[in-house]
Structure formats: C-alpha cells, structure tokens
C-alpha cells in the first residue's frame, strides 16, 4: 500500500503535512487559520494534558477558569503587553444578528458593544484584574493557578499544530510575595516542561533564557526550552516568564507583607500548547509515518490476527483476550483489530502510519509454535517472540523503545550543535541546515536584528549555566563573554 | 463565626448566590455576563468531567476539537437553527487593533473581516460542515464524537453557573446510518446523563421528551432530564437531541449504504454544562453552606487536629499520617489541616461551608481514648468513633452519605409532584411553590403558550413511558390522553 507520504528528504514541509493529514491527527477547517483536531490527534493531546496536569498539581497548582473575552482597555494597561498582543487579535464588536427581511442574516447594528471585547490571545490582563480581589495579605500568597483553555492569535500564515489562529494550551499564572519566590517558580515550571519534553515526548531540549528582544511582551525574563527538529530547525517547546511587578502595578494588585507593609505582588506565567504535537511529529517520525514514544501513544500495542477461518480466529482470540487482560492490568493500552473488512497488510500499514509502538501479528502457525510476530515501530525490526512471558516482554520493550527514541533524538541533537567562529562559517552552517549554531554575540539588540534580517536565524536562547569564555561577536567583532544558540526556527 | 449566608427560607435566590460566593466556587468577572470559576468550583467541574468522560468513552465516543468561530453564513443553512441561536451571540468583525497615534488603542478599520465570525453558541453547523469530508460510506458510521469546550450565548440577565454568557460544556455529535440507530443513541446518552445525575450528583431526575415548542432549534425530538430544586422550581439538567437528517441535508452529508444507495446521514447531539454545578448546589445545600455528595466532593474527608503544644500535635500527626495513607489507598481524597494560623472552630465552619462530607477532629483526649470525633455534613450529626478500623468505617460512611443525600432529594421530589385537575388548582399549586405539577394538556402549542404567559410555568417534559389516561386539558377542557409535567424553571 502506498501511503502517499512525501519523503522528508524531498520536501520536509510537505512530509510534515502529509503525516498530520494521513495519520488522521488534524485538518484545516473551513474557518481561515483554525484547525480541526481529529480524534486520534486529540487523544495525544489528552495524554499530554494528563501528564502535565498531574505535574502541575504535584507542584501545588490548582486549575481555574477565566473569561474568553477581555475588554479592549485592559490591553493598554501594560505598555509592552499591548504592543505584543493587541495587534493581531479577534475583535468582538456586536452581540446580535438579525434577519434583514430579505432572508439574509446580518449583523444588528443596534447591538453594538460600548467597549469592544478581544478574544484572549493570553490571559495575563483579565487574570491580574481578577487577582486584585483575591489578594490582600501575605497569607493569600503564593497564589498558584493554571488554566486549560483555547486562545486566538490572528495568523496570516498557518501550519497545522505549529501555528494556527486558534490553539489549545495551558497558561499558569502565579502571584508571590517576593521576587526570589517568583523567579524560583519560573525556574521550577521550566524544569517541569523540560522533564515532560525529555521523559514523555522523548525530545531533548536546551533550557535557556531569551534575549530581551525575544521576551514575552511584559516579562522581565523569559525562560524557554528549545528543541531541534530533523530538518535542523529549532522549535520553542515551552516558555516560563518572570513578570516582575509589571502586571501587579498595571492592575494595582498589592498585599500586606508579614512586616505590615503594602507592596506590589510578584508574578510569573508559563505555557505550553498543542504546538507540542507538531514538535512530537517532527522530532521522531519517518517516511513510513508517525513515530510515537510509548508514554504518549494512545495505542501502545496493536494485535492483528492472521487467520483463515472462524475456527482459526477463535483460537487466536482466546489467547489474545488473556494477553490483553494482563497488559491492561499493567496500564498498557492495547487494541485488538480483528476487523474482517481489511487485510492484515492494510492494517500493518495503517498502524505504522499512526505510530503505534508495538505491533503483534498472530497466525495459526504462531499458535502451534506458541510464538507471536512482533514489529517495533521505532526501528522497524520484526522478530519472533515466545508467547510465554509476553506481557512482561512487552512492558520492558515499551520502556526500551521510549529510551531508544529519546537516545536517537539526543544523538541527533548533539551532532547538530556546531560552533561557528566567523560570520561566513555561521552562514555556511545555516545553508547546510546543521541545526543549532553556538556563536559569540556582542549582546546588542541591533546586532541580533541584523543577523536575523540577513540570515533568518534568531538567538534561540542563552543556555542556563552557560560556559563563560572570551570571544568576539561573529557579526561585529566586538568582545563577548559567552556563546549563545542560534538557529532558524519554527 | 457568622458565615453571612442568607437563610434559604428568607430569600432562596440570595441564599444561592451567597453559597456560590462564600464557598469560593465562582464570581462575576468584570466582563459582563462572564464568570470566573474559582479553583474550588473548578475542581467540582473536573470531578464531573472525569466521570462523564469515562462514560462517553465506555459507550464508544472519542473526543475531538472544532473551531471556536463559525462563519455567519453557516447559521442560515438550517432554518430553525438560525432562529434559535443566531440572535444573541458574540460577533467578531475585525482582526486587528492599532494605536491611533494619541496613545489610544482602537479597532483597525482596515482589518475588517469579509464575513463575520460567530463565537460558537453550539457547534452543529461547523461540525456537520466538517463531517461532510469524513463520511463517505456506511463503514465510516457510526461516527461518535464529543467535544469539551467553551460556548457563548449573549445573556442579558445572568446568574452564576445557571445562566452565563460564556459557559463550559461538552457537546456530543454523532452520525448514523439509520434513523433507528440515531434514536437509540439519543436515548443511550439520555440514560448516561440520568445515571450521572442520580448516582454521582445524587439528584433524582425525570426522563422525558420536550414538547415541539421547547425543542432544540433544529431537532426532530429533544429528550431531557429534569431535576427539582429545593424552592420547587425545575432545572433542565441535560438534553439529548435526535436531529433527524436536518443537518445532514443542510450541509450535504451523504453516505453510500451497504446496498450501494447514496443517503443522507442521521444525527444526534447532546450536552451538559457547568450549569450542573448550579443544580448540585441548589439540590442539596442548606443554610450552613454547601452539601456535596461524596462522589463529586473534591475533598471527601478533612482532618483537624486539636492540640495544645508541638508534642501534642506530633502525636496526632503520626496517627493521621497512617490513616491518610490507608484512606488514599482506597481512593478517598483527604486533607489534613494543621495550619496554626486558624482556630479549630474557624476551620470547622470553613469546611462545613465548603460541603466536605466528613470532618474528623482529633485531640489529646481522643488519642488517649483511641477515638476520634466525626461530623457528618449531610445530617450535621457528631459522634465518637474508635480509631481502630476507622478507614473502613469512613469508606462505608461515604457510601451511606451518598445514598442519604440521594434519598433525601428523592423523597423531596416525590413529595413535590402533585396532580392538578383544574386551572385554579394548577395556579394555586404554583403559588404554593409545590414543585412539579402533573396535569392534562390538549397538546397544542397555543395552550402551552397561554399557560406560560399567564403563570410562567412551562411543560418541563412528557415523561418517558408515560401512563396513558383519559382526561381534559386544565386550560381548555379539550380531551387529553396523558398528563405532562409542568413547573416554573431555572
């Protein structure tokens, strides 16, 4: 069966799109820039949500829900924030439609809002306006809240999962008594994201800080995790912001300290989105389709019977039923596909396309030999395995696959961080799509901008605990004390 | 401690509002008609979601996600639907703000949408427009999909949880090959809702069908579950719609049947919302605050130590640590409140207000006697219980409380269904706030409308498996073959 997937060496962008569509993850909707997340894609998001939600709760956070709409004037209250977000957004101006008498449904001009409402692009403003009523004393702090929600940022050029007008995300918004506590929270949540990316998504990440130019609009410091895709482009997989007292001042949120002083509160915010599904696809998949790490695979094991008649099938099914009970008891998600409307070869191709980590095929001869045929999605190896102890074998193999997928991505990433010591070298590396480039930069926004304009490469981050070394900026030759990570990015 | 809750006999509406605010469930936001769901309120919603989501998956449904925005023209495609929903809705007309040069943020008139977008009030139109691409053959059916989402219906008069401009809900949208299968699905999901209301919310419900007037805009039949609140008013707690082929025809969704014929698909949709939290509050709570059924209580057991010094506390805590491990192992959520900033009496009042089903208080004398003091929230009884076997005692008591709360609500409901045999009797019963009124109706929309205008009572439903009996309409005296359930409603 031809799956109709473009080879990633021929056209990486088309390869990505083919996988999203053919593996039934998502599609463009008829509403410009908005996607439909299909059941299989959404089930990956549910897996991600479950893990992250557990981690947020473990670190003391509670979920809450704030309004979708934000009054226009709120955006003006934090100067940097409005520049960053108010420009491209969905504006609600009316609250009624009517029939114009000729059978057309039109906007009712008599139902115009006094103040326009913005569909939230992010919720700092509405949340800090609410926190003013929740915080009085140091006893109310820290306030540790997360929201799972949809947000809208008007995008002209969209790509499924990676950049869409509407997307799903979580946004944490916390309030603290001191700057230090807020910084600790910012770093704690960055670690949560890094742990999730590496140990669940199997995607190695570099933890770092953004340059002032790349900071979140309204933040004093933006921390990020940066991942590398197979085409050598970087992808920002999560951000955690130290907001200082900017929003507390803009929305007048003060607390009485233990010492009885009235002070502004310190803030953080942090978020990851359905963009992570894009990262997951691009980090591991191949020309045969999706490759999913077992910990986020909606189906971890699929079993396909190969049979000639009903009697044959009955024997296989009896064995499978017991195996499935054992696997489920270990928390392994398993599917038995005994449909008679499709041939085994078709099913093999389908589950390969969908990235199911382990496929078992069981035929009459396997039943006689007390074996099964097992295929690994990550290595595409097939081998024969005894039925005895199969449940334990599978549980161990899932761990091994998880590890292997991570190691492969880690090795790729390590091979794709290159040092450049001149601008010529830097540009040549970019042309070769070699991934992250570690280079000296003079620390000015101007140089950063020039490099971006000339090469489309941006500073992805200044890695945390970065090695200090004397050098000269690749662009200006001015002195520099550390290398930073450049790349072209999604 | 005065909790500042209005007595429900004095002012039921204010009592409800006081509980929502004082128990920290939700508050009005600064955006007209939109609420903020606070962490404690949201945690009840999470409990509800978990149970419902499991039930949906058990019955074969998958989650997916469709766009927030719906092009205006989609609403015109199903005639009844546009009348029902397009009138009061949030309309997005622009996609950019700009600085007007004087420091004001204004709508950028050059960024006007060609076609306005409606913030979804419900998603039938956008979903059926999408299903057209997903359904070709009978093999693609049934298509069983659910969405968890926010929706917006512009409301002039709002009440926390019960009626808000934005609310959270789930909406199931299914496609079937035959009318019969779609009707079966409609009824199956009604049963899921009824089971959830009765066995988790502890709220008895009447299952029935709406009259044509009260049907969902675009449905051939609307099934509902109707609950009775303590003030004698009814509350529609969930609906399940048989949509026939209306949306399939409006959006041209056809399939090739097994017999090779091209036919329109049959549809259902069904939903429950954060309104259920309002029902939960109103069905069980009292003047001391919220009463939560254990199965939906975020905290099922709270433990308050009564101690004089650190040594005292250490002894109690050692016992509590072991107890908590045992309770958690049984899946019971338990909180130990050993804060020294608040006195036990304050804590007692707080957890009573928040509806925690079981409260344990443990002091020095209890430790000597190997007992604890246990208080039930539902009956407000206190008694002394031996420490030995306490975990099993608590597990059993939680079940008993769940049952008791249901039985109390059931008894109340049974005592508040009254037959009326004349219009005078009917009106007198309404004035006495006696709950559901079972009465004969001539079956016409005109009579239904007159009764509603004159008494504010509506036909809540025609109960399923309704007893057939000859009678005469209370309003017109015309012949009738069955009684229907009337009530004033939320």
TrEMBL record, chains A, B:
Location(s) in or outside the cell: Cytoplasm
Keyword Nucleotide-binding part of the UniProt annotation: yes
InterPro entries documented for this protein: aa-tRNA-synt_IIb (IPR002314), aa-tRNA-synth_II (IPR006195), aa-tRNA-synth_II/BPL/LPL (IPR045864), Anticodon-bd (IPR004154), Anticodon-bd_dom_sf (IPR036621), Pro-tRNA-ligase_IIa_arc-type (IPR004499), Pro-tRNA_ligase_II_C (IPR016061), Pro-tRNA_synth_II (IPR017449)
Source organism phylogeny: Bacteria, Pseudomonadati, Bacteroidota, Sphingobacteriia, Sphingobacteriales
Identification of the protein by name: Proline--tRNA ligase
Domain comment (free text): Consists of three domains: the N-terminal catalytic domain, the anticodon-binding domain and the C-terminal extension.
Catalytic activity: tRNA(Pro) + L-proline + ATP = L-prolyl-tRNA(Pro) + AMP + diphosphate
Organism of provenance: Pedobacter polaris
Keywords: Aminoacyl-tRNA synthetase, ATP-binding, Cytoplasm, Ligase, Nucleotide-binding, Protein biosynthesis
Recorded family membership: Belongs to the class-II aminoacyl-tRNA synthetase family. ProS type 3 subfamily.
Function: Catalyzes the attachment of proline to tRNA(Pro) in a two-step reaction: proline is first activated by ATP to form Pro-AMP and then transferred to the acceptor end of tRNA(Pro).
Complex formation: Homodimer.
GO cellular component annotations of the record: aminoacyl-tRNA synthetase multienzyme complex; cytoplasm
Domain named Aminoacyl-transfer RNA synthetases class-II family profile: residues: 39-293
A biological process from GO: prolyl-tRNA aminoacylation
Molecular function, one GO term: ATP binding
EC number per UniProt: 6.1.1.15
Pfam families reported for this sequence: HGTP_anticodon, ProRS-C_1, tRNA-synt_2b
């Amino acid at each position: 069966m031809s799956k109709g997937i473009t080879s990633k060496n021929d056209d990486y962008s088309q390869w990505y799109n083919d996988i999203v569509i053919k593996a039934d993850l998502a599609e463009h909707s008829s509403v410009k820039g908005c996607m439909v997340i299909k059941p299989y894609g959404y089930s990956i998001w549910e897996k991600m949500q479950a893990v992250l939600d557990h981690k947020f709760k473990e670190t003391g956070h509670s979920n809450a829900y704030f309004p979708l709409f934000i009054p226009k004037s709120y955006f003006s209250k934090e100067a940097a924030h409005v520049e960053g977000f108010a420009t491209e957004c969905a504006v609600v101006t009316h609250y009624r439609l009517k029939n114009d008498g000729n059978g057309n449904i039109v906007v009712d001009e008599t139902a115009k809002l006094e103040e326009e409402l913005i569909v939230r692009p992010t919720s700092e403003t509405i949340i800090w306006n609410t926190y003013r009523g929740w915080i009085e004393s140091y006893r109310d702090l820290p306030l540790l809240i997360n929201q799972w929600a949809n947000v809208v940022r008007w995008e002209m050029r969209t790509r499924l999962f990676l950049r869409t007008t509407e997307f799903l995300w979580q946004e944490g918004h916390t309030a603290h008594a001191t700057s230090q506590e807020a910084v600790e929270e910012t770093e704690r949540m960055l670690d949560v994201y890094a742990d999730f990316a590496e140990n669940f998504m199997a995607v190695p990440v570099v933890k770092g800080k953004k340059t002032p130019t790349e900071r979140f609009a309204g933040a004093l410091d933006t921390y990020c995790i940066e991942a590398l895709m197979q085409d050598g482009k970087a992808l920002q997989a999560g951000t955690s912001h130290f907001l200082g007292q900017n929003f507390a001042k803009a929305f007048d949120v003060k607390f009485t300290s233990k010492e009885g002083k009235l002070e502004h509160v310190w803030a953080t915010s942090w978020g990851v989105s359905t963009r992570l599904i894009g990262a997951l696809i691009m980090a591991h998949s191949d020309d045969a389709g999706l490759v999913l790490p077992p910990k986020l695979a909606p189906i971890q094991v699929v079993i396909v019977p190969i049979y000639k008649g009903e009697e044959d099938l009955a024997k296989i099914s009896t064995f499978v039923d017991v195996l499935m009970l054992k696997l489920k008891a270990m928390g392994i998600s398993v599917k038995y596909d005994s449909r008679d409307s499709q041939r085994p070869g078709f099913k093999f191709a389908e589950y390969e396309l969908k990235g199911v980590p382990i496929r078992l095929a069981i035929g009459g001869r396997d039943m006689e030999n007390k074996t099964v045929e097992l295929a690994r999605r990550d290595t595409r190896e097939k081998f024969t395995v005894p039925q005895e102890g199969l449940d334990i074998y599978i549980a161990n193999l899932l761990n091994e696959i998880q590890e292997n997928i991570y190691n492969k991505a880690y090795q790729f990433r390590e091979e794709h961080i290159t040092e450049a010591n001149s601008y010529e070298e830097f540009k040549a590396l970019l042309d070769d799509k070699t991934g992250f480039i570690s280079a000296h930069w003079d620390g000015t926004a101007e140089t950063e901008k020039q490099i971006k304009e000339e090469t489309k490469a941006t500073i992805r981050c200044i890695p945390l605990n970065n090695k200090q070394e004397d050098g000269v900026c690749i662009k200006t030759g001015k002195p520099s004390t550390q290398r930073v990570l450049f790349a072209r990015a999604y």
